[in-house]
Amino acid sequence: MLKISSLNLLSINQSIHWQKLISDIALIALLSGPVAAPFLATLGIFPLGTIANIIYFMGGHVCPQTEMGLMLSSPHLMAVCMRCYGLLLALLTTRLLYASNQGRGFYWLHQYRFTGAAIATSLTFAYPVEMIAQILNLWEYNNIVVTIFGYLTGLGIGLFMVPVLYRQKNISTKGEN
Which residues contact 150 (CB under 8 A, 6 or more apart)? Predict the structure, then answer.
C-alpha cells in the first residue's frame, strides 16, 4: 500500500509579504494584459471583449503611441507600443535579478549612492529622448529601436523601484535595536 505523507508547504511561521505579492501580481498583469488584449478582443465572447476593452482603455492612458503596437491578432493591435512594452520587460528583468541576489549584485545602484542615482536617472531619460527624436523626424519609428530605448528606461526605473518594493525587512530576534 502507498503511504502519502502530507507536507506543510506554507509554514505557519512564514508570513505573506503582501507588498511583494501585490507588486508581482501587478507586474504579471502589466506584462500579460497588452499581449492578451488582441486575442481577447478577437474572440468576441462576453466578458472577454469587455476585459479587452478595459485593457485597451488602460493602455491608451499610459502609452503615447498605442497605434504603433504590434499586430498580434488581426485587426487588433497590442494594447501598448513596443517602447512601453520594452519598459515592462526591463521591470521584469530587474525583478528577476533582484530575486536572484536580493540587491547584492554590482549593478544595484543603491550602493553607489549619488552616482547610482545619476545613472538610473539618466537611463530613465532614454524613452523620452528617443520619442522626441522620432517626433522631430530624426529617425523613423522602428520596433527594435523603440524596444531598446524603452528597455533602458525600464532598467532605470527598475533599479530605483525594485529594491524598494522587494527589500527584506531586517527583523531582530534577539531584542537588539
Answer: 82, 83, 84, 85, 86, 87, 89, 90, 126, 127
Question: Which sequence spans correspond to the domains of the chain?
Answer: 18-166
**Which amino acid makes up residue 122?**
S
Q: What are the φ/ψ torsions at residue 17 (nearest 5 degrees)?
A: -90, 90
**Cβ(29)–Cβ(41) below 8 Å:** no
Burial 94-104 (b: 16+ CB within 10 A, else e): bbebbeeeebe
Q: What is the pLDDT of residue 1?
A: 46
Residue 34 carries which side chain, given as an amino acid letter?
P
Specify the residue for cell string 529617425: 139
Cβ atoms of 81 and 65 within 8 Å: the answer is: yes
Mean pLDDT, consecutive 10-residue stretches, the chain (177 aa), reads 46 70 96 98 94 97 96 96 98 96 85 88 95 93 96 95 81 43
Distance CA 70, CA 139 (A): 19
Is the CB of residue 163 less than 8 Å from the CB of residue 98? yes
